[in-house]
Specification:
Strand order of the largest sheet: 1-2-3-4
Largest sheet: 4 strands, antiparallel
Distance between the termini: 70 Å
Helix content: 40-55%
Number of strands: 10
Strand content: 5-15%
Number of domains: 3
Order of helices and strands: HHHEEEEHHHHEEHHEEEEHH
Oligomer: single chain
Shape: elongated
C-alpha cells in the first residue's frame, strides 16, 4: 500500500539549472529583449563607429565653414558699404569684360544682399565640374571686379567650403567614398535607437531615473564609464537621430529611396516652372547645396545676347510679386521656350525661398511658388536640411553642431 508521503510526482522534464547568484524562476518569462538590444547596440557601434566618427569630424568642419569662408574670402565678399549701388546692368557689364573671349555663359546674378556685400555674376563653364559655376565678384558701388572664383551648388559654396563638403560627402574618393557616408547616415540611427531603448529599460528599474540624465561621480572604474556613456548618450542620441534622418537624404542608395517615398506620399518640395505656360514642378536638393545655378539655367543664352538691363527690370518685377528679401538669385531664360526666374535664397530663419517666373516676351507672371504654400512635410524637410547644414540659425546653429551643450564641463558641474 502506497502512502501519500511516498508518492513521487511525475517529472515534466529536466529541472532548470540555477546558479546561486542568478536563481532561475520557471514561472518568470525569459528576458530576451534587453540582451538583444544590448548586442545590437554594441556590435553596430563597433562596426560603424569609425565611420560615424569621421562623418562627425568632417560634418563639424562643414558646419563652421560658412564662418571660415567669410574670413578666408573677405576680399571677395566684402567691400566698403554704400547706400547707393550702381544698376545691376553696370555690374554685369564689368563682369562680362572679365570673361570676354571665354566659353562661359551668363547663368545667374546674385545682387549684393546688404550694404558692404559684393554682387555675384555667375557663369556656366564647360571646363568646370558638376554643380560648379564661375562667379565674378563685383563691388556694387564702383562696378570694380574684386574676385573670380569657382562656386558650388545653390548654396554658392566657395572653394574652401566645397573642399570640406566633398570630404564630408565622399572623402574625395568619388562614388566609392560615398558608401562611407551611406554607412554612417544609415547606421547612426540604428546605433542610437537601441541605446535609447536600453536607457529607458534601465530607468524603469531604478529609483531615481532623472539621476541617469547626468553622470555619477560616486562610481569608479567601468561603472563610472558606463554612467557617463548612458547619461551623455541619451542626450547625444537625440541629435544622432536627427542627423541620421536628415543626412540619409544625401546618401548614395538611401537618398533615392527617400526621394521615391516622398514622391509616393506627395511630400515633394515644389519648384517654380520655367516652361512658358507651365505649372509648378517638384524638385529635390543635391548634397549640401542642390543643383547649381548653371544647371538650372541649362544651355543658357550667350552672355553677349542678354541685355544686362533686363536683370534690373526682373528684380523690380519680382519685388512687386513675392520677392521681399535681399538674398535673391536672378536667372535668365535657358532658351526661347523658357522663362526668367527670380528666386529668394535665404535659408536662415525665417526661411524665404519664394520664386516667380516671367515670360520674357510679355513680362507676365507664368508661375510662382511661395514657401507659405509648401506642405508641412516639405517645410520640415527644408528646415531639417538647413539645420543639418548649420545655416538655419547662423553661428548659433554652427556652435550647437560643433560643440553641443551636453559636452560642456560647466553643464555637468552639478553632476552628483
Amino acid at each position: 500500500m502506497t502512502t501519500p508521503s511516498s508518492t513521487v510526482p511525475e517529472s515534466s522534464g529536466p529541472e532548470p539549472i540555477s546558479h546561486r547568484n542568478h536563481p532561475v524562476h520557471p514561472d518568470r518569462p525569459i528576458q530576451w529583449f534587453g540582451p538583444l538590444l544590448r548586442r545590437l547596440h554594441f556590435y553596430a557601434g563597433i562596426l560603424v563607429g569609425p565611420f560615424i566618427l569621421i562623418a562627425a569630424l568632417t560634418g563639424a568642419a562643414y558646419a563652421i565653414s560658412p564662418t571660415l569662408e567669410k574670413l578666408v574670402y573677405a576680399d571677395q565678399l566684402s567691400v566698403p558699404a554704400t547706400d547707393d549701388p550702381l544698376p545691376l546692368a553696370d555690374q554685369i557689364d564689368a563682369a562680362n569684360t572679365v570673361i570676354a573671349g571665354s566659353d562661359s555663359t551668363l547663368s545667374a546674378v546674385r545682387p549684393a544682399p546688404e550694404p558692404g556685400d559684393t554682387t555675384r555674376v555667375m557663369y556656366s563653364d564647360p571646363s568646370l565640374g558638376e554643380s560648379e559655376s564661375r562667379a565674378i565678384f563685383v563691388d556694387p558701388a564702383t562696378a570694380e571686379v574684386v574676385g573670380d572664383l569657382t562656386v558650388y551648388g545653390t548654396s554658392g559654396a566657395l572653394p574652401l567650403r566645397t573642399w570640406i563638403d566633398q570630404m564630408h560627402r565622399s572623402l574625395h574618393l568619388g562614388d566609392v567614398g560615398r558608401f562611407y557616408s551611406e554607412l554612417a547616415a544609415s547606421w547612426m540611427g540604428i546605433v542610437a535607437a537601441p541605446g535609447i531603448a536600453l536607457w529607458i529599460l534601465r530607468a524603469r528599474r531604478t529609483r531615481k531615473p532623472l539621476a541617469m540624465l547626468r553622470p555619477s561621480r560616486k562610481h569608479k572604474g567601468l561603472r563610472r564609464i558606463f554612467s557617463w556613456h548612458a547619461s551623455v548618450g541619451i542626450w547625444a542620441a537625440i541629435g544622432m537621430l536627427f542627423l541620421s534622418a536628415t543626412g540619409i537624404t544625401w546618401s548614395q542608395l538611401g537618398g533615392d529611396n527617400v526621394t521615391k517615398l516622398r514622391a509616393a506620399l506627395s511630400w515633394e518640395t515644389p519648384a517654380v516652372s520655367t516652361e512658358l505656360g507651365g505649372a509648378s514642378t517638384t524638385g529635390e536638393h543635391a548634397h549640401h547645396g542642390g543643383s547649381s545655378s548653371a544647371e538650372a539655367a541649362g544651355s543658357a543664352a550667350d552672355h553677349a545676347a542678354i541685355d544686362p538691363a533686363d536683370f534690373d527690370m526682373m528684380l523690380s518685377m519680382g519685388h512687386d510679386v513675392n520677392i521681399d528679401t535681399g538674398l535673391v538669385e536672378i536667372r535668365p531664360p535657358a532658351d526661347d521656350h523658357s522663362a526668367w526666374v527670380v528666386q529668394e535664397i535665404q535659408r536662415s530663419f525665417p526661411t524665404k525661398v519664394d520664386a516667380v517666373a516671367f515670360d520674357p516676351t510679355t513680362m507676365e507672371v507664368t508661375d510662382r511658388v511661395d514657401f507659405a504654400d509648401y506642405s508641412v512635410p516639405a517645410k520640415l524637410a527644408r528646415w531639417g536640411i538647413d539645420v543639418h547644414m548649420g545655416s538655419m540659425f547662423g553661428l548659433t546653429n554652427q556652435i550647437v553642431l560643433v560643440a553641443p551643450p551636453w559636452a560642456s564641463r560647466r553643464w555637468w558641474s552639478g553632476a552628483t
